[in-house]
Design a protein that fits this description.
This protein has 249 residues and is an alpha/beta fold. The protein contains 7 helices and 12 strands.
Length: 249
Amino acid sequence: MPDSSRPIRTAAVIPAAGRGVRLGPGAPKALRALGGTPMLVHAVRAMAASRAVSLVVVVAPPDGAPEVRSLLDEHPLGGRTELVVVPGGETRQDSVRRGLAVLPDDTDVVLVHDAARPLVPVDTVDAVIAAVRAGAPAVVPALPLADTVKQVEPRSPGEPEPVTGTPERALLRAVQTPQGFDRETLLKAHETVAVEGEGATDDAGLVERLGAPVVVVPGHEEAFKVTRPLDLVLAEAVLARRRATDGYV
Ligand code: C5P
């Protein structure tokens, strides 16, 4: 934790290097337009909206960092938030690691936020930061589930899958981003926890494997992840309502 003689410094890392194949063919997901503005620009603005965030690191597709940099330059933040773009890696975990590598040493609190959650409200961002500042090494915003969840034995697409269990719904939460961390804890998790296959789908999961405590704060329904085509329809509707009611750009 920081020494008390200087202000706490908070940075946000936005992994945006995924292809977003579930959304259908087209540009990388983060670069798709939402209300005429790339999803990534909304996500960057959502982080910069918090007065606590002084640096945003965007992790671009491995071969697309210069394009992402010029795209972001076309949509300047116009505030005191610094913006850095670095190339990403093969997996989300790789991409986050590359973003963490460029954080200045005096960073105390790190947010990791999916570019695919462009509409997270600033109150949710601030609640996550506040919980880390209050002493939690890892904080995730999350919501209770509407659906009952089944555990299955995965089979090929189209083949019926045997159910192996039904976790008690009241004990489950659907987690969102930004997830917030004490920087030292997150760096240690990324350096020491090895994950097979596609890597960790969530940074708090790495911290859990480290044995450090992770806590949940209330998430927000507008922090949903844009994954499938229908999510784009919902995101456009949320954006249109915000523009009509509170002058959101
Ligand atoms: O694929 P999924 O929706 O879980 O990706 C979550 C976030 O991680 C997205 O913002 C995506 O751009 C990012 N990602 C990345 N590098 C990868 C894969 C995904 O930055 N290699």
